[in-house]
Predict the structure.
Amino acid sequence: MSENLHQLRCFGCGARISGAEARPDFRCADCGDLFEVEYPGWGERKGPDRPNPGALKWLWRERRCSAEGLDHSGVWRFRELLPILESFGNAVTLSEGNTPLYHLPRAAKRLGIDQLFAKHQGMNPTGSFKDTGMTAAMSVAKERGFEWVACASTGNTSAAMAAYAARAGLKSLVLIPDGKIAWGKLSQAMDYGAVTCQLKADFDGCLTLLTQIVNEAPIYLLNSVNPYRLEGQKTPAFEIAEAFDWNVPDHLIVPGGNLGNSSALGKGFREMHELGLTARMPMISVIQAVGANPLVRSLAENGGTSLEPVEAHTRATAIRIGNPASWRKAARAIQETGGWCLDVTEAEIAIAKAEIGAEGLGCEPASAVTLAGVKKLRAEGRIASSETVVLVLTGHTLKDADYTIDFHRGTLLSADESAGREAEIASLQRNAQVVEATPAAVLAALKGRAE
Ligand code: F0G
């Protein structure tokens, strides 16, 4: 029996097609908008395909002790809510997901929020949240018989794609902006065996070019315009709800780049609510960098009815995106949950990243916009002290070690960028010191260290 229960619905005009009918660029033939996966059987209250919340909660918990490979995946453990494959036996998995949810005691204390947590998606096999989406979409690519897969990337998607392609025995093509991605990520694509092309273009240019390529050659597109990516990326929402015993937190804070992740998490929380697994949705807020803030502008200027692309600039290279593909979906997630969309400066990002580092966690710069965003929301009175807040940390700190080292050496930010915050920045800097090889010199180095 087929395990596939899905169809695709156009986000713009509502047209419905089967998965096999999707065009290579995943755009609607009628209106050009993106598709979303839907499961028609879930709508019938007493239908045979509608998941049973009580049974699922029990089953998903049981699977954590299961010996079966698929159950070790924090994505496929929830496979009843992503029936996108003919057979789950075709799933390509690296045991992704099941990432930790950490309390952030120091930041919580400073902010006066008791319940401040970080869902660390950087603790995935290739070090970012992209793995949860890639396992889903790569499985579809394999099941449909593709030989080649491809993505445009600011680095993490390419690392994840290359790894999962290698596991699936497929060949992969990566298009990345020349010089504007972190070395750690580029090294992963190489190591996992992708054909990696550095283009004299930004991320948006890479994606436009790749769209032309997949329309000409039988190459499967694995950017988040591919709706199956978002099916995998919705599963951290299930993990978060499960961790809170199915009482969802009040507020989820997500970085915004191409805006697939915020869309996916919104879908996950919406579906849980619609199926009766949870009683409500959390507020979902999206944070962008000031220099790459097209959604912030769109929502402020026209309520999210249109989006004007910007030329993107930020050292948080993962979110250096000016023309985000999934902006309509992300706008819906923010608007339907009553969340916010705001932007944070380069200094705010750097400070927040160091503070997350000082919690013993660390993350990459793009992830740190979440803490920077919470600080702003709290200062503006938009988050109450009683709220439970979860930051989605999207990437591992080792992804962009250069950024971290530059921060601690004091070479990251310009004088203009750090103006007025010099003391705060200095209090967080922990540059390595050159010290004589004597006990006295090393012990002397301990003196003067704050805290
Ligand atoms: N955080 C990190 C670490 C990312 O790598 C990305 C996106 C985002 C946040 C933003 O997520 O695009 O779903 O809004 N990185 C992509 C890439 C674009 O190519 O790796 P989004």
Remarks:
- Residues 260-275 form the longest helix (16 residues).
- Residues 128, 130, 153-157, 224, 255-261, 318-319, 364, 366-367, 394-395 surround F0G (CB under 6 Å).
- The mean pLDDT is 96.
